[in-house]
Amino acid sequence: MSSVTRIRSATGGARGGRIALLGTGVVGSAVVARYRQLVERGVPLPPFAWLSNSRAQVANEGSLEDAIARAHAAPRQHGGVPPWAEGEALARGDIVIDATASDTVAGWHAEWLLRGIHVVTANKLGNGGDLARAQAIVDAQREGARYGDSATVGAGLPALRLIRELVAGGDRIHAVEGVLSGSLAWLLSRFDDTRPFSDLVREARDAGYAEPDPRQDLSGEDVRRKLLILARAAGLPLEARDIRVSSLVPDALRDAAPDAVDAQLNTLDKPLRERFVTAYRSDARLCFVGRFDAERGASVGLRALPLSHPLASGHGTENRAAIFSDRYPDRPLVIQGPGAGAGVTAAALLDDVLRIARQAG
Ligand SMILES: NC(=O)c1ccc[n+]([C@@H]2O[C@H](COP(=O)([O-])OP(=O)(O)OC[C@H]3O[C@@H](n4cnc5c(N)ncnc54)[C@H](OP(=O)(O)O)[C@@H]3O)[C@@H](O)[C@H]2O)c1
């Protein structure tokens, strides 16, 4: 392919590794913007060889700004070989950044690692997908390539890294519970019964805090994936079906066609109002919590937490995770901070890139 030829000539070969970005949406665009800022500040990042979305792959021939503008402007295509399949463009030591939500792209993570290509991902469908896929990703790293997944949970908050370090240090994780969805944290922190919940959902969607189809957040599926990633890091080999998920989405909204979703949002209002009033009367706060427990299993859903609970504080889109282990049996180790948004996610991705580049160098 001509684009592959241009990639090689643009970077002068694979020595030292090059970056290939998949996904030029909200997160991918933020990665490009941050990459440019960091390079201007003299941070030694690997060269940016190419970027790709579902429509085009574009070589960086000197101006990243031009490259991303060309990728954004590419027309919709049907059929043909998707850009990610051009695996032969990549060489040992290169770094793929996956900023898509594509199951197909996630299916390539282990294959790239086996070829000696490092993978850095915001896409949770790699180690938050099927257990067999997650295990293949772990096994493939034995060949030497590295997997950077800091951005998949808490947008780079160090919860995932900390769990792995505790386990590597001989600690045993008993339980982890967390507020792991920035959009649900934002919705529930704003919900005080002065406005219908559906109004807040529309506001969150319009401001970009929630997905264009808010059912993706409200169903709890995103939290389920994050909990799977944390549980597996703690040594619990869970499958998605092992986590009980209590969706906030009523049946009528769940079954609505995409263009009827907005009209059905008000089906959220009555049940959420009832939960809020009950919680308020007992001095509790509603939080959407994911929890796994080595003894008692794993669940995702809405809980009314006393105000003194470690997960009940926090503002806006903040994420929180409480870790109980042999070392922290009664009072958990708590990590809290901004855990959503394109800026912090892009920073987490490029932190992983820099860590890998340093280790490879
Ligand atoms: N947004 C956040 O704050 C946030 C925070 C943490 C993690 N994440 C995760 O980051 C990922 C990206 O999120 P986003 O908000 O940036 O999504 P987005 O705006 O929808 O962008 C997704 C990008 O992936 C591209 N894509 C889809 N299939 C592809 C394929 N087969 N090959 C190459 N590119 C492909 C899309 O191409 P087209 O442009 O051609 O459609 C688009 O550019 C998701 O996994 C999300 O869960 C997001």
From TrEMBL:
Pathway: Amino-acid biosynthesis; L-threonine biosynthesis; L-threonine from L-aspartate: step 3/5; Amino-acid biosynthesis; L-methionine biosynthesis via de novo pathway; L-homoserine from L-aspartate: step 3/3. Its cofactor is a metal cation. Belongs to the homoserine dehydrogenase family. Residues 158-354 form the Homoserine dehydrogenase catalytic domain. The keyword Transferase does not apply. Its EC number is 1.1.1.3. It comes from Luteimonas kalidii. Coiled coil: none annotated. It is an enzyme of class 1 (oxidoreductase). Keywords: Amino-acid biosynthesis, Methionine biosynthesis, NADP, Oxidoreductase, Threonine biosynthesis. Gene3D superfamilies: Dihydrodipicolinate Reductase, domain 2, NAD(P)-binding Rossmann-like Domain. This is Homoserine dehydrogenase. Residues 23-144 form the Aspartate/homoserine dehydrogenase NAD-binding domain.
